UniProtKB/TrEMBL annotation:
It comes from Cobitis minamorii. GO terms for molecular function: double-stranded DNA endonuclease activity; histone binding; protein homodimerization activity; sequence-specific DNA binding; ubiquitin protein ligase activity; zinc ion binding. It comes from the Eukaryota. One of its GO terms (cellular component) is endodeoxyribonuclease complex. One of its GO terms (biological process) is V(D)J recombination. Signal peptide: none annotated. InterPro entries: RAG1 (IPR024627), RAG1_pre-RNase_H (IPR058553), RAG1_RNase_H (IPR058554). This is RAG1 protein. Residues 1-62 form the V(D)J recombination-activating protein 1 pre-RNase H domain. PANTHER family: V(D)J RECOMBINATION-ACTIVATING PROTEIN 1 (PTHR11539:SF0), VDJ RECOMBINATION ACTIVATING PROTEIN 1 RAG1 (PTHR11539). The gene is RAG1. Residues 66-198 form the V(D)J recombination-activating protein 1 RNase H domain.
Amino acid sequence: SWDVGIIDGLSGWTSSVDDVPADTIARRFRYDVALVSALKDLEEDIMEGLRERSLDDSTCTSGFTVVVKESCDGMGDVSEKHGSGPAVPEKAVRFSFTIMSISIRADGEEDAVTIFQEQKPNSELSCRPLCLMFVDESDHETLTAILGPVVAERKAMLESRLILSVGGLLRSFRFFFRGTGYDEKMVREMEGLEASGSTYVCTLCDSTRAE
């Protein structure tokens, strides 16, 4: 099991980590660092969204809600037929995320207002890689060992808020994660037979089959 606790502050932490089994190669960013980078890239869009909806800072004290779509899929055969180095699986898996929407609830209002919506949720341009690993996607044990810390970091972020300077002011962000981009075979591998029919209808939105 992995116990992360609430990740408090980014100073003094490396932005990428190596905590993977010795018999494979994986490289990943810390989840909170990657989300901060993504939000800073969207800073202009966030400010523009606030201006378009005539929301000023005094009416938005509750903070922003960010919906993140997670994706994890095998990349197929990536073998190199030359060069030296450790013998690693000749298949790769990529774990990535996309910021789908950012919304805010103004004081006194019941409904949240969406200030950013990703127009191309399945585009490579909006998809941000978090972890790249040389592993066969059917190797459940290795996959779990690599992605375990990622899941622990995600859980820690669900239970905390991120304070980030956007537009010159410190603002609060809460994250909600949707695993709509998981490959069907991988969902079965990770969750067992009850996931043989995906929880979600498609990879474009987070509507579930139950709904």
